[in-house]
């Protein structure tokens, strides 16, 4: 708890919660690296143990003056199966938005921010990003439904509490009434993830890096506080917020994501025994990982890292890394004691995003392989990423005597 964090929010408590835990980590950026005990407990003791069919993450916005009492977003899961996203975005959220308008006279809408630097009237509205470090997005990669809730920062505290209560109450009511349907959709997404591996491993590519793009349809009747333009003494243009609510059409909604880098979906991965910590990390996420009891030859590919880059500023205690290079097809031998991750399992999409070396939110990004790569001279020469992808098992026929 800390004082003075939200002085502009009327009637807020004198002390409010802070984003960081005792380690100084933002728990809503910890979904992949899982460094916080709170994150590990949530994933292992709630998400994995209870397997909730719907997860809701409750927030208050950072301060954009749109005109909604609450804004929402589904979990973004563009590397995953679309079934859960489509149902949440196209069915649940529009239904609840209409319901609270009729019952409570509250105006809800899609989550985002706009920038006055782009001028006025508002032209673009931007959601947050797609990374599975955000728990809501990760839930989507787990083939379950999820919703982000953001109450309006500038309403009085009791209003925000009421708005959040109404939203959660309607979500619970909807999930209760449509429980069978929700579970069937989630199960279908899970089965689709497994079948995609069984039927298409080694033949299709999936995105591992994404950029934000507008949705096919813009937002019409976008509700926002209005601004007026004026010229400052130095001749520059500025905008002054009025107390008037305005509605604008054809506002581009940046809430879709287009892949910029793709990787082949493998049947699975081989993790060398020396990287047992990686195998244990996947197990903490709920993945099934087995250890080989004998040598085995596989056909697959390795990734040759030709450029390894690290950020100059820390983010969540890390100098975020990225790798550029090329995949090389090869047959290879996995040794006894190495770890096998068969992707024909429910968490296939999450594992794929976590282990791919070019992923924009994988373990390589979070420095899990820095020590190995730097010790092998990655800054001066190409180095193979230690995790191998396999497409099939190689069998050798015995020679006839």
Attribute tags:
single chain, 401 residues, Aminopeptidase, seven-stranded antiparallel sheet, 18 strands, 30% strand
Write the layout of secondary structure elements.
Elements: E1 2-3, E2 15-16, H1 37-50, E3 54-60, E4 70-74, H2 83-104, E5 108-110, E6 124-126, H3 135-141, E7 145-151, H4 157-177, H5 179-200, E8 205-214, E9 222-231, E10 237-248, E11 252-264, E12 268-271, H6 276-285, E13 290-291, E14 296-310, E15 321-334, E16 339-342, H7 348-355, H8 370-375, E17 383-384, E18 388-394
Parallel strand pairs: 3-7, 4-5, 6-11
Antiparallel strand pairs: 1-2, 4-7, 8-11, 9-10, 12-16, 12-18, 13-16, 14-15, 14-17, 14-18
Helix pairs in contact: 2-4
Concise overview:
With 401 residues, the chain is of the alpha+beta class. It folds into 2 domains: 2-115 and 128-209, Aminopeptidase (3-Layer(aba) Sandwich); 266-394, no CATH class.
Describe this structure in words.
Helices cover 27% and strands 30% of the residues. With 401 residues, the chain is an alpha+beta fold. It has two domains: 2-115 and 128-209, Aminopeptidase (3-Layer(aba) Sandwich); 266-394, no CATH class. The strands form five sheets. Strands 12, 13, 14, 15, 16, 17 and 18 form a seven-stranded antiparallel sheet that branches. The mean pLDDT is 95.
């Amino acid at each position: 708890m800390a004082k003075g964090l939200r002085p502009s929010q009327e009637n807020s408590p004198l002390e409010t919660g802070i984003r960081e835990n005792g380690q100084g980590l933002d728990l809503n950026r910890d979904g992949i690296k899982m460094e916080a005990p709170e994150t590990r407990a949530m994933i292992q003791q709630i998400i994995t143990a209870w397997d909730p069919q719907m997860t809701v993450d409750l927030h208050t916005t950072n301060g954009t003056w749109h005109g909604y009492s609450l804004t929402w977003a589904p979990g973004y899961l563009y590397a995953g199966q679309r079934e859960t996203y489509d149902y949440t975005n196209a069915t649940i959220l529009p239904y609840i938005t209409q319901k609270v308008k009729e019952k409570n006279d509250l105006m809800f809408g899609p989550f985002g921010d706009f920038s006055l630097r782009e001028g006025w009237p508002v032209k673009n509205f931007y959601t947050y990003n797609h990374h599975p470090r955000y728990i809501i997005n990760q839930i989507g990669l787990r083939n379950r439904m999820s919703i982000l809730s953001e109450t309006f920062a500038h309403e009085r505290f009791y209003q925000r509490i009421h708005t959040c209560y109404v939203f959660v109450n309607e979500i619970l009511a909807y999930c209760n009434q449509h429980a069978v349907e929700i579970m069937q959709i989630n199960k279908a997404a899970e089965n689709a993830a497994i079948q995609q591996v069984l039927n298409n491993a080694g033949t299709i590519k999936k995105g591992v890096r994404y950029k934000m793009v507008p949705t096919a349809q813009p937002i019409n009747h976008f509700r926002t506080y209005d601004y007026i333009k004026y010229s400052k003494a130095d001749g520059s243009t500025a905008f002054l917020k009025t107390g008037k609510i305005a509605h604008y059409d054809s506002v581009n909604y940046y809430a879709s994501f287009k892949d910029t880098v793709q990787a082949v979906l493998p049947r699975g991965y081989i993790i060398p025994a020396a990287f047992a910590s990686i195998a244990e990390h996947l197990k903490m996420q709920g993945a099934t990982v087995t250890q080989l009891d004998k040598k085995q030859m596989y056909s697959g590919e390795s990734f040759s890292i030709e450029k390894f880059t690290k950020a100059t500023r820390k983010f969540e205690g890390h100098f975020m890394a990225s790798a550029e290079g090329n995949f090389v097809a090869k047959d290879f031998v996995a040794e006894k004691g190495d770890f096998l991750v068969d992707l024909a399992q429910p968490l296939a999409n999450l594992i794929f995003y976590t282990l791919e070396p070019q992923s924009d939110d994988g373990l390589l990004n979070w420095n899990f392989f820095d020590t190995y790569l730097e010790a092998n001279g990655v800054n001066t020469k190409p180095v193979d990423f230690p995790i191998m992808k396999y497409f099939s098992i190689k069998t050798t026929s015995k020679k006839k005597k």
